[in-house]
Batch of 3 targets.
Target 1
Amino acid sequence: KNEVEQSPQNLTAQEGEFITINCSYSVGISALHWLQQHPGGGIVSLFMLSSGKKKHGRLIATINIQEKHSSLHITASHPRDSAVYICAVSYGNEKLTFGTGTRLTIIP
Amino acid sequence: DAGVTQSPTHLIKTRGQQVTLRCSPISGHKSVSWYQQVLGQGPQFIFQYYEKEERGRGNFPDRFSARQFPNYSSELNVNALLLGDSALYLCASSTRLWATEKLFFGSGTQLSVL
């Protein structure tokens, strides 16, 4: 059983829609990462957070420590946002545990 | 500044062969970690090295080994390749040891084992 669960697995939306991707984990963590992976494999780190909320451009990441849950939001989605979004957590050591990813497709 | 670079980008091997993958971290980064990503799945942690010492190892067999050099570049070696080793191998670097630092990933090496 994967210790990090993401939902949905796949998401298709129209350009301009507000997007939410969810991540749940099983026990207390020291940090949570949101990553973006485009076709071809390269991964870009979007956010690293351990509490509260972070915003960068149209992207917002939140984390609720008590509920062991994080969300990634994309406002005014654009076709270039199409990618796989991966949540990864650190349980206090060097190791990262990854979710299986959410494949996002934005239709023009 | 150059990002994390990995070589080669693609590799085809046959079962039983050995392979070496290379990673150069961002200048000033002392931590390098390796991940295996099988098609359709999230990455799996293989190793982390910091200051040339192994500081973490995932659930991979002893056929997998790695090392970090004095310039902080790293190699991942896989012996006695199996079909199941076919995957994208990713390297990431960061300034410090703990996974509470932002990670910078390379583009990966796509390994195909025939």
Note: The mean pLDDT of chain B is 93.
Target 2
Amino acid sequence: DAGVIQSPRHEVTEMGQEVTLRCKPISGHDYLFWYRQTMMRGLELLIYFNNNVPIDDSGMPEDRFSAKMPNASFSTLKIQPSEPRDSAVYFCASSLAPGLAGPSYNEQFFGPGTRLTVL
Amino acid sequence: QQPVQSPQAVILREGEDAVINCSSSKALYSVHWYRQKHGEAPVFLMILLKGGEQKGHEKISASFNEKKQQSSLYLTASQLSYSGTYFCGTEFDSNYQLIWGAGTKLIIKP
């Protein structure tokens, strides 16, 4: 498998513009997570999905942020309008559901990330 | 609620041992350990669950003290490839929400 795929890898935009980040999880994974990483705040969970349904979006910083997962192989994180403080690396990660017969939890596989710079 | 990692950074010679700690102010359901190299994504190392179940890396070990609400990661006979920043992610309620520590930067010198 190719792993988690994210696009674009780098995005530079101007304040006020709409930004859309894309993620393709590993095939067969039930969970998808969106994270943001900055030097100041570290790694933060923004939202996660189970079987395409958003489970918890309490980490989404503001209404300017929205995420969708229209099918099992694609998710988007949108920022509209973007602001300089949104500059960060955004990671998407996916995971299998906990197994009944195996370990109670499975690891998260992270994509390479999208480095967003808002000028 | 963010877990506290210590030390913040450590420099070792190849072959030396290191211990990285992760402490929480709340009771933990599980602790996850990941390593991130500069400019790359975090990579899974270990999961430790309340009750003793573990899943993880062959050459790296960890402990989970539920009473003390802390976990430790043990890196023995360190190799150059162990360099990176180590993060612990803590879960409180079996809800898959990980709260991450600030990270411990490990530098291994030849």
Note: The CA atoms of residues 31 and 90 of chain B lie 5 Å apart.
Target 3
Amino acid sequence: DGGITQSPKYLFRKEGQNVTLSCEQNLNHDAMYWYRQDPGQGLRLIYYSQIVNDFQKGDIAEGYSVSREKKESFPLTVTSAQKNPTAFYLCASRQGFLNTEAFFGQGTRLTVV
Amino acid sequence: GQQVMQIPQYQHVQEGEDFTTYCNSSTTLSNIQWYKQRPGGHPVFLIQLVKSGEVKKQKRLTFQFGEAKKNSSLHITATQTTDVGTYFCAGLDQGAQKLVFGQGTRLTINP
């Protein structure tokens, strides 16, 4: 079954702790993306990656870090420097060339208390 | 940097009424994509427009891409309760594979 998997679905962390969100895809897609969604708001781009071992900052990268050591995996770390980390995080992937759609994971809802 | 603006933010209609959401980019786009997110779900791809002035239809949904490839619209004719959700446009810039989403329009429907 091909797809993109995010885990866990719900995550609770104490303030000041780093936390890593998992994103795995078996679609053989080159490009992967992380978005943040706050209640009633749109999708804001955190980081994206076009190929292995390369990634670019999106519009709200501060307080986040990523890695792309394998084509299938694009984990996102929410660091203690992120001032307001509670949000719904969505990972997406797409083929690396133009005119292809993005496929999303089910999302991870992170709550920091 | 590239910005994609979408209006309105919210729209409430009576079932059977029409609905339109508009999308504008600060830069010329390679293409525009539209997604739908049901409450509690994740965005799902609806359609992609590539050519200047392109119009595509999916049953009651009509999508348009502007001549300058900087704006787009989604129009739903005779809304049904199954149309409830948030509709997003997303623009892909012309080189960097950066996929930027608009703020979305949340559609609610009174049956």
Note: The two ends of chain B are 41 Å apart (CA to CA).
